[in-house]
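Budget justification note: compute hours in this period were largely spent on complex prediction jobs such as the one shown. Inputs:
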Amino acid sequence: MLVVMQSDASPEQIARVIAAIREHDLTPHPLPGSTRTAIGITGNTGAVDASAFEALAGVKECIRVTKPYKLASREMHRDDTVVRTPFGDLGPKAFAVIAGPCSVENEPLVMRTAEFLVSKGVRFLRAGAFKPRTSPYAFQGMGVEGLQILKRAREKFGIGIVTELMDTEYAEAVEEAADVIQIGTRNMQNFSLLKRVGKCRKPVLLKRGMSATLEEWLMAAEYVMAGGNYQVILCERGVRTFSDHSRNTLDLSVIPPAKALSHLPVFVDPSHGTGKRAYVPAMSKAALAAGADGILVEAHPDPDHALSDGAQSLDFPGLEKLLGELRTLATVLGREM
Ligand code: PEP
Ligand code: MN
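Corresponding output:
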């Protein structure tokens, strides 16, 4: 349920409603909006009795949220969520590009990439220190040492870091190194991991499970938000279909319904979505045209010798060209970038 406060409700009235929700053994989630504050209620197993809250001072109305995902739904929060980081906002105002190699392979690679990205106006570097690889014999990432490299890149170049957390064991270490914590497709329904990042103080970029429906994806976001972390970005990265011309089928058709049903920013990963570098620019531009809030794209100075996902990584000239094309398209679409 959602308790909508009157637009002139005082902080004391809001606090009183929050306390009343707790007195009923329920969890309050204050959601300040552009015109009024609403307070989401979770923790109930059956229907919540609205009469307990409707009579409180400053309350405008109580609304039942019909969707199974509550905090992630637009019914609960009409305004678009803007994810805030020290390196800028992620959300509908400006289309954002997060770029970098699949993995942290070594320090020079990360430094060289960070320097290039900053020189081209890209504010966020992606690179995995922990890598979920299909084969146990493939490069597994540099782990904690990789996180140290990312921290040094942030300090030296002032670039935001997006990096994956695979295991609750490393939550603290990844949270410290990351400006946005990535949860990979294979972990979209790792519920203990989702609960753990719900306790983190950094935003979470939640990849869509490779066979997840939109509702399952939003329920995964709900796990994070139910823990008190409302800064969640959804990221479409392709799903499994019968098609074999691409690594995955990038489901751009999920963007409009995801944005209609949820207030969370929606990003697209055209690299894992296609698996082939040649197709990345077209899908990146399509993502912008379809209403995505940004892309997460793999780029490497020497993709043919990358330790992971080289085939789908753009080289630097390729990324630079794509950035120019996206800027042109953003202008045509009346979007900022
Ligand atoms: C990645 O971003 O490098 C990655 C492993 O992504 P996904 O979880 O979508 O496969
Ligand atoms: Mn990758």
